[in-house]
């Protein structure tokens, strides 16, 4: 018998989208199509907490190629034993990871087969084999509907990855993700919603400065102490910092931080030690690993996520200086892999950057929300992204082995390499920033090129600079 409790009304399914390769390359054997599993919510327009069953509907769907059949499993109002079985199935097949896209890793054949057999015994539903028996373009995803207190949340997040069948390599997926993002940026909001399988809009539900909403979701948000501590990171000329003097000089942007009268303001946010966290009876915070907060009668745990984002509102620049996602931080802090419903519902880099952009613009005379020109990603250490960078460099004529100092190498979005860099784990957030805020930005804004370079600092890791065009009308990149 199912139980009830006060939970929000929003539900989240996975959405499948199948693509034809935008530009097959001789460098690898591409499949003709692939299926992307994206974490996108279907939600109502309100934020009420309502009485709901403790275990909402659970679905499993197989997306196949053009000749494949889809089989589905629907377990509604599951009992505690069935919910526990679903948890077992999730653990068997692997983690669901963050960044507004989620990875469904299909692993451990024996556990999956056992779980599916048990599931059949409980509910008599139809299922399909695990991906080890699927061929070509077929993939399996688990669809779980759960509840949240925030309306119209759309996790496209830039930091998330997807996992598909083995013949779909990361380069292929990044090219297609970048292509899809470009199409979404240059399309109307309604067309972008259709592209991403949403009902009517692709616009983010999170708008403005988000000060109260971030507090609600357990964030310690850019306190005066944080501002003082991280201000030095926005001194872009400092030998102890990023050393971007030549880069910013060529762009006509100052290097000075806010503390020195400059336009570069650093915002830092942490998902621990927040005023929303429950303190001990003596008035202190517990260790980070044991901090909890409550949203809509549901207890959530601090993840340890941290982000530092620099803003030059007058110059139209956003700098992603340090990004530690909620999923990866939670995995490290908790010692276990989190499920999506355990994470704060505001966690995508694009939404956090949008909030900080709005704050800086509001505090800068003459600055406009529509004035965005540049997205920087600093000191890229993400392994998958660096592999994509290396392959992009090898495609140059002549091929390059290493990222060069500024001005580095520029890749247009008409090129496969440009779209792969945009679709990379640390690049996607910039596209979502533009695609999900068309109304506020006064129309379509599109990334038309990306520059990959190293700073003047010895031992520099790669940097990205994405350029924002006023209109996507001239860019003709089709899925």
Summarize the structure.
The chain crosses the membrane at residues 111-128. By secondary structure, the chain is an alpha+beta fold.
Describe this structure in words.
The protein is of the alpha+beta class and 479 residues long. It folds into two domains: 4-195, no CATH class; 211-469, no CATH class. Helix content is 27%, strand content 20%. It contains 13 helices and 17 strands. It has helices at 80-93, 109-123, 170-186, 189-195, 211-216, 224-230, 245-251, 326-334, 349-362, 383-394, 416-422, 428-435, 438-441, and strands spanning 4-8, 14-20, 33-39, 49-53, 58-63, 72-75, 139-144, 220-221, 264-270, 292-295, 298-301, 306-312, 317-324, 374-377, 409-412, 446-454, 462-469. The strands form five sheets. Strands 8-9-12-13-14-17-16-15 form an eight-stranded mixed beta sheet. A three-stranded antiparallel beta sheet has the order 6-5-7, with helices on one face. A hairpin with an 8-residue loop joins strand 5 and strand 6 (72-75). Helix 1 packs antiparallel against helix 2 and helix 3 packs across helix 11. 48% of the residues are buried. The model is unreliable at 1-48, 50-167 and 473-479 (pLDDT under 50).
Task: List the SSEs and their pairings.
Layout: E1 4-8, E2 14-20, E3 33-39, E4 49-53, E5 58-63, E6 72-75, H1 80-93, H2 109-123, E7 139-144, H3 170-186, H4 189-195, H5 211-216, E8 220-221, H6 224-230, H7 245-251, E9 264-270, E10 292-295, E11 298-301, E12 306-312, E13 317-324, H8 326-334, H9 349-362, E14 374-377, H10 383-394, E15 409-412, H11 416-422, H12 428-435, H13 438-441, E16 446-454, E17 462-469
Parallel strand pairs: 13-14
Antiparallel strand pairs: 1-4, 2-3, 5-6, 5-7, 8-9, 9-12, 10-11, 12-13, 14-17, 15-16, 16-17
Keywords: Membrane, Transmembrane, Transmembrane helix
Transmembrane segments: 111-128
